[in-house]
Amino acid sequence: MSVEDTDVVIVGGGMAGTAAAAYLSANGLSVVLLEKQESYTDIVRGEWFAPWGMQEAQRLGVDEAIAFGGGWEIREWTQWDEVVAPDEAETVDMTHFVPGVGGPLGFPHHTVCEAMAEQAADSGAKVVMGAQRCEVTAGREPSVRYQLDGEPHEVRARMIIGATGRGGRVGRQIGVSMRTAVHHWGGGVRVEGLDDWPMDVQAMGTEGEKNFMVFPQGDGRARLYINFPTHNKHRYRGAGGVERFLADFELDSLPDGGKSVYAAAKPIGPLKVWPSMTLRPEQSIVAEGAVLVGDEAGNADTVLGTGLSCALRDVRVVCDILLSESDWSPEAFEPYLTEREARMKRLVFGASIIAKLQCEFGPEATERRRRARKLMAENPAAQVLGLLNMVPPEQVPEFGFSEFFAERLFRETA
């Protein structure tokens, strides 16, 4: 077995893992990054950075890699819905919420990860693609054993960063279990051919039993998502699933009935469906010799769209501790735990409100949305949780996270 020593070993080469590897290696630490894929492919992940997430990318120095990997600025957000005519849908300018950032970015996840992994390697990190069967040992002498081309390897480090996403492969090995809650299901596919869709406008809306989203990526490409009720979770499985998925964008609430999407879209990646889960860790995400970041540390319902932004915040906070402290004991990460707990409390609460408004279906839910839109038009304060998609969670007014606010919002829409 080959054995090597390093400061930090990162398990998981997604957005969080590659960002951490690039940032730490650029600042003088030795890093080994382990990724199970032999090469980056489209496995359908989140592909949207909120403006506050791009601010974190700038602080980590990976914003240029994101642009090189296909990052595309989206300037406007239109909220379509079956309760309003398409030409009456509200449009929000998203470019002015975070100074020096502009609007959010849509991008192909796999090509951005590849660009960030290349940046990490150029900064001195060792990037191992195709690392299989990672066995994590935390404690005073942290190490990770893995298989590469059938041969065993071991990395001994001062710290292990777990960044394997919702699969939680590192978390489970250090004893972290998750409470899970599923509100609805979702599916996504990447397409091209949307030449008549304005590439600076993202869409979100609800019609029938579908909450639909269009996130442009430039040059007629976009990631399409649909959230749908749990009882309908098999709708897009099996033969013809992609065709059924695209046909479901024939929507009266979209301009031209959605023809610029469903009739023009040509899939350029796989279709995947998943339960939209909220994950809450039941034990500490910091152990001696190991720390979890990104979805592996817990997440909010994906309807909020802040998972990747949250992951980069995790990376920045954790890595700044590693770079500023000689003591990497669990106590050193107390600021991370405190900040993340407060942040996730807000994100989980906000996501639950948005899911109730946008991802519940039927006559009662439709009337709730109708009244909510009217209330928000009359009282902009009722839109406060929409800021979570734009500004850092700690900058959103506190009243939006109170049970009183939620009770008042839904009472007014009842």
Short overview:
The protein is α+β, with helices and mostly antiparallel strands and 414 residues long. Helix content is 31%, strand content 28%. The strands form 3 sheets. Strands 1, 2, 8, 9, 10, 11, 18 and 19 form an 8-stranded mixed β-sheet that branches. Strands 5, 6, 12, 13, 14, 15, 16 and 17 form an 8-stranded mixed β-sheet that branches.
Protein architecture, described:
The chain is of the alpha+beta class and 414 residues long. The chain folds into three domains: 2-74 and 98-180 and 277-345, 3-Layer(bba) Sandwich (FAD/NAD(P)-binding domain), CATH 3.50.50.60; 181-276, D-Amino Acid Oxidase, Chain A, domain 2, CATH 3.30.9.10; 348-412, no CATH class. It has helices at residues 15-26, 51-60, 63-68, 109-122, 169-173, 241-247, 259-262, 307-324, 334-358, 363-378, 403-412, and strands at 2-11, 31-35, 48-49, 72-73, 76-81, 90-93, 105-106, 126-129, 132-137, 143-148, 151-162, 178-192, 201-207, 210-218, 221-228, 266-267, 272-281, 286-287, 290-292. Strands 1, 2, 8, 9, 10, 11, 18 and 19 form an eight-stranded mixed sheet that branches. Helix 1 packs parallel to helix 4 (109-122), helix 1 (15-26) packs parallel to helix 8 and helix 2 (51-60) packs parallel to helix 8 (307-324). It starts with a strand and ends with a helix. The mean pLDDT is 96. Residues 5-348 form the FAD-binding domain. One of its GO terms (molecular function) is FAD binding. InterPro entries: FAD-bd, FAD/NAD-bd_sf, PheA/TfdB_FAD_monoxygenase.
